[in-house]
Write a structure and sequence with these properties.
Oligomer: single chain
Helix content: under 10%
Number of domains: 1
Order of helices and strands: EEEEEEEEE
Radius of gyration: 15 Å
CATH architecture: Sandwich
Shape: elongated
Number of strands: 9
CATH topology: Jelly Rolls
Length: 106
């Protein structure tokens, strides 16, 4: 993605489950191969319980804007197997990223 502005808006809409109870699943965003802070961290109350995740996050690229970036949504279970699904009626999980005008965030 080529970013002309300093701020990006990330939207995520998905369902997550873990194969065992009490195991946590964490979602992070990787920018140019570097994981950022945890965006979502949730424990499954029972095995294979599906939990919805809807995020809307503003990302500050700092001085690293006006260039190309590789952005990846990553998930990691603490144990067991985490599976990511689309929400009802969708075939795949969704992630949107768009540029924001800087004046709104100073």
């Amino acid at each position: 993605m080529y970013s002309r502005t300093r701020f990006l808006e990330l939207k995520v809409n998905l369902v997550c489950s873990n194969s065992a109870a009490a195991n946590r699943t964490r979602l992070t965003l990787s920018i140019d191969g570097v994981d950022q802070e945890v965006l979502w961290d949730q424990a499954s109350p029972v095995a294979n319980y599906r939990q919805m995740c809807c995020l809307n996050v503003v990302i500050d690229l700092g001085a690293n804007f006006n260039t190309f970036h590789t952005l990846k949504l990553r998930w990691q279970p603490t144990a067991g197997t985490s599976t990511i699904y689309g929400v009802a009626g969708e075939v795949a999980p969704k992630m949107w990223i768009r540029e924001l005008m800087e004046e709104k965030y100073y």
